[in-house]
Fold Dephospho-CoA kinase.
Amino acid sequence: MLKVGLTGGIGAGKSEVSRLLVECGAVLIDADRIAREVVAPHTPGLAAVVDAFGDAVLAPDGSLDRPRLGSIVFADPEKLARLNSIVHPLVGARSRELEATAPEDAVVVHDVPLLTENGLAPLYDIVVVVDADPDTQLDRLVRLRGMTEDDARARMAAQATRDKRREIADIVIDNDVPLPDLRRRVQDVWADLVRRAHPPHETAPE
């Protein structure tokens, strides 16, 4: 099994790269999706978040009001750290459970938005960083996600710098390109990952 950590700044196109890797045959473990699951209604994770931040973070239907919680924690580093101390261990445990169910010869891609920020690179055999120019990120966040420019810039500034992400990368995928070019690049990366996962056996000396 080859464990791949996939990351990239917000708006860099990491989700598109993960989708293309799945098309190629990767087993995907999506940290963002798991982070939502572990604080779903009636879970111990949600109970812990409410205990820490109060009933105000609940929506009327009893689910987590993510925008409300975000407005609380992103304005206060201590509160963000407290939230992370609740959610990250739950995400890590669930990720390991899912990884254990993958075939022994699989290429398992962990899609982890905050891989750089949380110092998680050592957990993976290979780190793949999806990279895009900050202007490209900003345009995508405003045009495709409907963020205001100020909000988009704030979200980008809250993450690791582009240089910090590239420092931990074993492989960089440039996503300042049209989709056909990105697809070809991902296919090349996939071929490399498969070679790493299944190295040719050394021939025994005669």
